[in-house]
Amino acid sequence: MTTYDPTGAEGAADAGYDAVVLAGGGARRLGGADKPGVRVGGRALLDRVLAACADAGTTVVVADPRPTTRPVTWTRESPPGGGPVAALYAGLRHTTAQDVVVLSADLPFLTEETVRRLLTVLRTSGAEGVLLTDADGRDQPLVAAYRRTALRRELTMLNGAASRVGSTAGGGLTGLPLRRLTAGLDLTRVPDPVASFDCDTWDDIATARTRIREHGHVLDEWITAVKDELGIDLDVDTGVLLDLARDAAHGVARPAAPLTTFLVGYAAARSGGGPEAVAEASRKAAALALRWADEAADAKPDAAPDATPDTSRPDAG
Fold first, then answer.
1. 120, 106, 100: which is closest to 185 by C-alpha?
2. CA 108, 110, 114 angle in degrees (round to 5)?
3. What are the angstrom distances between the C-alpha of 42 and each of 16, 101, 186, 212, 222?
4. Is 293 in a helix, a strand, or coil?
5. For the residues 266-293, what does the mean pLDDT come to?
6. In a 3-state reduction of DSSP, which class is residue 60?
7. Where is this region: Disordered (predicted)?
8. H/E run at residue 242
9. Separation of alpha carbons 250 and 103, rounded Å
């Protein structure tokens, strides 16, 4: 078992993978609240996790079905409420990829970059599993990537079945702690106190909501929340839009900023949508805003030509 130094390990996460998200716990420390549905930054915790593994070939959520921002495969452990090992057993049955990302549904700061990092380390370290450690150095086996064959091996051994992971019966796994599963795996650890932060209590939820609204995060969080709410799956250069809004506000009038960006979006949609259409509409509107500002500067009294004759010149008349 080792701790991984991520320096230089980039670009090895191109191959496909599947994801299993465990979202069926009782949330006793939240008073039995529907934890996957609790919103942080306007988005349900489960949807935030699903966004981080959006490029998985198959995403399995072990919980009762509910509306989500992207389609997933639903399943449940048997019996329901049997704990994380039984839930993982149930979810793994619906996966086929060699590598499987295993996640809890309460990770507000998990990103696609974190998932890719886990897969990169898994594929370059030779380990059977790679998991994050939290701020206190504790293992987080539900923020991890594993070799599917290794998980099947350990689950089969724990369940007491010779070679049957495909069975729906996982009674032998009920109530087992995850450390019983991970103890048999060759693991690599990656420290990440932010991505590994999970929400077990209302204080954790409050901490996450506060951080989401910090200056360095709030804009990206808001844009992502708006896209989720509107059902828009579009990656655009927000810097271009911000520059356009600034130019419109400065060169025309402050209310011109939101109205201009709205019109840019409308024009892009009329042109077929997509990042290229947004970029082109933004370019045209930004050029117009600059021309508008230039004209305003030329129209200032101190910039206008002096129409008063210069009587000091001999030919003035």
1. 100
2. 170
3. 30, 25, 38, 10, 8
4. helix
5. 84
6. strand
7. 296-317
8. helix 238-251
9. 46
* Sheet strands (E) in 157-262: 187-191
Q: pLDDT value at position 300?
A: 61
Cα–Cα distance between 228 and 145 in angstroms, integer?
Answer: 26
* Greatest Cα-to-Cα distance within the chain, rounded to the nearest angstrom: 112
The H or E element containing residue 74 is: strand 73-75
Structural tokens at position 13: 């996460």
Neighbour-count burial of 78, counting CB atoms closer than 10 A to its CB (0-12 exposed, 13-18 middle, 19+ buried)? middle
Name the amino acid, one letter, at 72: V
Mean pLDDT of 29-36: 80
CA-based end-to-end distance of the chain: 95
Nearest-angstrom CA–CA distance, 48 and 317: 77
Q: How far apart are CA 225 and CA 222, in angstroms?
A: 5
For CA atoms 259, 261, 264, 270, the dihedral sign is negative
**Tokens 């003035």 found at:** 316
Which helix (H) or strand (E) covers residue 145, if one does?
A: strand 139-147
Distance of CA 288 to the CA centre of its chain: 35
Return the structure tokens found at 19. 């994801």
Tokens coding 101: 């990302």
Residue 120: exposure state from Cβ atoms within 10 A (0-12, 13-18, ≥19): buried
Reported as a single tens digit per residue, the pLDDT across 193-229 is 999 999 999 999 999 999 888 866 787 887 788 777 7
Q: Could you tell me if 289 and 247 are in contact, meaning their C-beta atoms sit under 8 angstroms apart? A: yes
Cα separation, 133 vs 196, in Å, equals 7
Q: Which of 111, 97, 120, 173 is nearest to 143 (CA)?
A: 111
pLDDT surpasses 50 at 89? yes
Q: In this model, does residue 313 exceed pLDDT 70? A: no
